[in-house]
Specification:
The structure is a single chain. It is built from 13 helices and 11 strands. By secondary structure, it is of the alpha/beta class. The chain has 3 domains: about 45 residues; about 70 residues, no CATH class; about 180 residues, Rossmann fold (3-Layer(aba) Sandwich), CATH 3.40.50. α10 links the parallel β9 and β10. The radius of gyration is 22 Å and the shape is globular. It starts with a strand and ends in an 8-residue tail after the last helix.
Length: about 350
């Protein structure tokens, strides 16, 4: 299912927009009569998929196709633009060349698939999901997005948080989950979290938000390991796009040592260079589980596929305008430029 937002001066006006756009099959998720400017309605719908169009639809669950033919020079320029380390870039280029793909995005997808793993979440994971990562990574929004997707599928979901340090952390999650008619449960210890997870019949999905982790602080690492072990949850690394490539690789390696096997990438819309994503996946030997390119719940996560990841890399900049990355001299601020 997909989620769309409609606004109007009153409920009738907003509902008219919903029916005109989605028809009578729309499912009303939430009606906010106190939204700025009037009424805001969240509605879900199921896009029609014809039997012979399934594959094409799956490929468009993400960035638009790149209409550029494959060439070694174009691929090399794109990898340099993102700052992917030379040795790793050469491995990607070699795998792309051996794939015999004619399009640039499919060639890069083949190169990425040869070095990284892709594994999205099952509709009913065997374990609760414990989202961990550095402060500001977007864990709270990621929790709410996963919960929204579960609700749209009609699955039962429970949301928990251990992020009781930030004064607005719980309030932010509660505000987003309120729109989904979900109650957020808080736990200030691993023991309390375990109790909350097991005090009722487990729903199809249990998602846990956590306090930001300093990967280089041993006490932070021990805390996350303790929460994961005692709760029985699967820890999932949340990485914000745009982070330095070496920094991302180091953090992924540290989190992988805690038993983390999957990674969610957030904030793709707020970054231009994605070398950190590639180095984190490669160094941490983690599987990519999902991609987020928007802070809005309605947009959800984008499927973690080699082709979607390739298209994100190629979309910045437009392959038609790819060129050699400027030399350091070209990037220097000239003396007196600000005078």
């Amino acid at each position: 299912m997909r989620l769309k937002i409609y606004t109007g001066r009153d409920v009738k006006a907003a509902m008219t927009k919903v029916r005109d756009d989605l028809g009578d099959d729309a499912i009303i998720i939430n009606v906010d009569e106190n939204a700025p400017g009037g009424v805001r309605i969240s509605a879900a719908y199921e896009p029609p998929i014809l039997p012979d169009e399934t594959e094409a639809f799956e490929e468009t669950d993400g960035p638009a196709p790149i209409s550029a033919p494959y060439s070694e020079e174009s691929l090399s320029s794109s990898l340099r633009f993102h700052g992917i380390p030379g040795a790793l870039a050469k491995k990607i280029e070699a795998a792309a060349k051996s794939s015999d793909a004619e399009d640039l995005d499919h060639a890069l997808a083949a190169g990425l698939e040869s070095l990284t793993q892709f594994a999205g979440f099952a509709k009913a994971p065997a374990k609760p999901l414990l989202l961990v990562g550095p402060p500001g990574a977007g864990k709270t929004v990621a929790v709410a997005k996963l919960a929204a997707e579960a609700r749209l599928r009609g699955d039962d979901v429970s949301v928990f948080t251990t992020d009781l340090i930030r004064s607005a952390g719980v309030a932010q999650l509660e505000l987003m989950c309120d729109k989904l008619d979900l109650l957020v449960k808080t736990a200030d210890s691993a023991q309390e979290l375990r109790y909350l997870l097991h005090q009722q019949d487990a729903p199809a999905l249990q998602i846990i938000d956590t306090t930001g982790v300093n990967a280089y602080n041993i006490e932070d690492a021990k805390r996350i390991a303790r929460f994961a072990a005692q709760s029985g949850a699967e820890p999932v690394f949340v990485l914000p796009a745009g982070i330095d490539a070496l920094e991302a690789a180091e953090q992924a390696h540290i989190f992988a040592s805690l038993g983390i096997k999957r990674m969610l990438v957030t904030r793709l819309d707020g970054a231009r260079r994605f070398a950190g994503i590639i180095t984190a996946l490669y160094k941490g030997r983690m599987a990519l589980a999902g991609l987020s390119a928007s802070p809005y719940l309605a947009d959800g996560f984008i499927s973690a596929t080699p082709l979607n990841l390739a298209r994100f890399l190629l979309s910045k900049p437009d392959p038609a305008r790819l060129g050699i990355v400027p030399a350091d001299d070209d990037l220097r601020i000239q003396k007196g430029a600000s005078a």
